[in-house]
Amino acid sequence: MLHPPAFPIRKECPPGACVCERERLLDDPAADRRVLRLTKEEEKRLIERIEAIGSYAELLRIGERLREQLGISLTIAPGPNEVRTVRGFHIEVREMPGLCRKTRQAIPAAIRRCLESNPEIAFTILNSHDLLG
Questions:
Q1: Confidence band for 101, pLDDT divided at 50, 70 and 90
Q2: Measuring CA to CA, which residue among 1, 16, 30, 32 is closest to residue 98?
Q3: CA-CA-CA-CA torsion for 69, 38, 119, 75, nearest 10 degrees?
Q4: Backbone phi, psi, residue 70, to 5°
Q5: Which stretch of 35-44, 47-56, 58-67, 82-91 has the lowest confidence by average pLDDT?
Q6: How far apart, in whole angstroms, are the C-alpha atoms of residue 5 and residue 33?
Q7: Cα(44)–Cα(55) distance, rounded to whole angstroms?
Q8: 87: helix, coil or strand?
Q9: How many angstroms separate the CA atoms of 106 and 85, rounded?
Q10: What is the DSSP string of 38-81?
């Protein structure tokens, strides 16, 4: 590791548990290390924040802030088949060096829980993709 980051970073995962390529990210001086700011404690706060979202605008704001502050790309769209439940939505966190596999699963799961508790957000997503006319 050439230059350690000036901010607290996420602890490494146990060997074999994750393929986040954290060390490769730390070894590359030109790499975008913002994602490493998402420590386990910050991830818990993020998940709680996502689950507490109350509107579609707030969901979009969270997605934008993830991109700006951590470089995380979040995509939420209706799935290719019929959307009968929140499981029909395609929620994807793009894979990137330094982003833990568990985090990539936890964010979409939190969004699904949010959509289950706020069906009006799910309807707004469907409407934004012209599925409700």
A1: confident
A2: 32
A3: 60
A4: -120, -10
A5: 82-91
A6: 8
A7: 20
A8: helix
A9: 19
A10: --HHHHHHHHHHHHT--SHHHHHHHHHHHHHHH---EEEEE-SS
